[in-house]
Design a protein that fits this description.
Layout: E1 4-13, E2 16-26, E3 31-35, H1 42-49, E4 57-62, E5 65-66, H2 72-75, E6 78-81, H3 93-102, H4 108-121, H5 137-149, E7 155-159, H6 167-182, E8 186-190, H7 194-200, E9 203-208, E10 211-216, H8 218-222, E11 230-235, H9 241-247, E12 252-258, E13 261-266, H10 273-282, E14 287-293, H11 297-305
Helix pairs in contact: 3-4, 3-5, 4-5, 5-6
Amino acid sequence: MGLVEIHDLTKRYKELVALDHFNLSIEQGEIFGLLGPNGSGKTTAINCMLQLLTYDRGTIELFGEPMSPTRYDLKRRIGIVPQNMAVFETLSVHENIDYFCSLYVSNANRRKALVAEAIDFVDLGDYRKFRPRKLSGGLARRLNIACGIAHKPELIFFDEPTVAVDPQSRNAILEGIQRLNQEGSTVLYTSHYMEEVEQICTRIMILDHGQQLALGTNSELKGLVDIGEKVEIELATPDPSVVAAIQALQHVAGVSLEGNALKLTCLRGARGVGEILDLLHSSGVTYGRVYSEPPTLNDVFLAITGKELRD
């Protein structure tokens, strides 16, 4: 029995089926990635789990117990970091964190310690008296996280927590999530940044039209599609004649010429860069830089859904 268990969850908005007999199981200690294009059902699933939405059918269990709108004992064990900022502009950093922590922790001394720990955790000690509008985008996101995790929840929902933040703040947020996980929190994580999911998630589900399309570790998902390494070769001069010859090679799945850049996708398991370079050499084509990389999660997502994640 997982920490989160959802069975046959169905949610309709009139004619639109947002969740279609959706199933989900998250084990304690995971950082579970939930991926899908806009409108795939991710946020609807989270809101149903939190009992912020009613649903047509299905069961939801958290911590081995049936979840319902009045299960405040379960809700106290949950932290929520929403995509949109959820803080009070009239309160300082410290006051915001203290307020949200007070929703879960009534003991003043205990809460004082938790708030101080949360401020240190997100490195906002120098900004504790600042109002949110005075913070940069990255610092405001850290405040949003501190408000959601100050009460030390066992299960934390992160819904696109790094939207519109700088790379340094993004790295700090991701490292913070990993530390929370190491300290015992189970995490459900959604993002439109595939590299984040690859970096921190132990298992990943790809969701679309309210249904699971694929589930597994990063490497398991990559094994589901026949995509191998991607190769880019810088030609001295564009030569469209080589495209058809390379496309005819058995291990090449696709090839295109973009300016002077010859871009290829190989089939999974193929190691054919040498054969491609031999073909260019025999055709009298001069080339420079050769770049090769393994398939990414974004490649897998596009192959499975037919959509770019940033739709």
